[in-house]
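@channel sequence for tomorrow's demo:
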Amino acid sequence: MYVRGASNTRAVALNTANVKNRISIIARAVYGEAEGQSLEEKRWVAWTIRNRVEDRKHFPQFSNPRSFGTAVKKDYKGYSRSINRNSKAWAESLQAAHEAHFAPRSKDPTHNSTFFYARRRANPKGITEKEANSSNINKRFGTNAKLLRTDKNKNFAHFFFRIFGR
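structure tokens (generated this afternoon):
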């Protein structure tokens, strides 16, 4: 995985870190976002992270998601999120990160998704799953973009999509 012309410090870290560190960073983000979810959903999260890193225009949103921050550093109260490295969730997070990192682009199950939101949480810019359509995305982001839901027929705890023309 590489980052085209990355200027963000975390992007550069992902670009220049050795493979083991890159996979660990992605796995910690996957664990933070989808710890209790299926391996398939963890794969979707890992691929969405890869897609965001490779698509530079979406990188700032990847660098500061709620769960990612405490997976790699302390939260605002000074606590680090502990990862149970002997758990099935961690093993699956590592597996999903490894697969997404090394697989050819043609293996992307998300159809190049660059966004995912947890159904159970308040979402950035106030977007809920019900509002996740092109009209509302354009109003909230001030764009003239087309949204494509890529998780049709999936029973995931997150919903996944990509935006065109942004």
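heads up for whoever presents: DSSP finds seven helices and three strands in the chain.
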